[in-house]
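HUMAN: Please help interpret these tokens:
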Amino acid sequence: MTDPGLVPPNWGFYMGDETKRRRYCKMCNVWKPDRTHHCSICNRCILNMDHHCPWINNCVGFYNRKFFIQLLLYVYACLLVIVCTTIPELVERIMRLTRSGEFDAKDFAFTCGIVMAFVLSGLLVCTLTNFIKFHMKLVLENYTTIENLEREEGAKSKFDIGRRRNWEQVFGSNVWLWWCPMHMQSSRPDGDGVRWRVHYTRVIDEDEELPADEEGAAQKWLPASGRSNR
């Protein structure tokens, strides 16, 4: 199992000239980078934590989110193969049972097994369709499941740097290796899970106020730009 990503040792003790507030985890005794959260089940902080998945008994984070998406896609593809290949076999067996005057218990039991496989596969396909669409949308918009729960309706992620680059932060920059379920030098996620590129638009917290000189400059700039556009 691939480790989802841990906070590097001693990270955050030397912040340089950065003045933004840092979050501190009292459980792990580490400073938490952006998009890092503490998992109560794994009992550690996870880089770019998406969620804790009980099916893989691990957190989905920066270094294994690609594999989680691949798992969903490969399972979905297998289920589609089962559904598509079962339909003609199922139709043939039902027609044979209805036309035949004799009752074959073995053939009937095998047909019931095929029906169950078809129904279960169909239900899983319907369930996974929306689940995969949800996670693909999160990747393209550069959101995690946790961030999606906290965001306001219609809000854009400040980490959204374009769909292609958002995708590369999960799947890597090499298109030919997006399908490969392993990390190589050219297939690793772009970045380090600690420092994140942000959208050029300045994001202002609700409790943050612009200084008077910046506010005045902004008010002066808007009419000027409006006249220049005319």
User: Anything to note?
Assistant: The first helix runs from residue 65 to 99. The two ends are 59 Å apart (CA to CA).
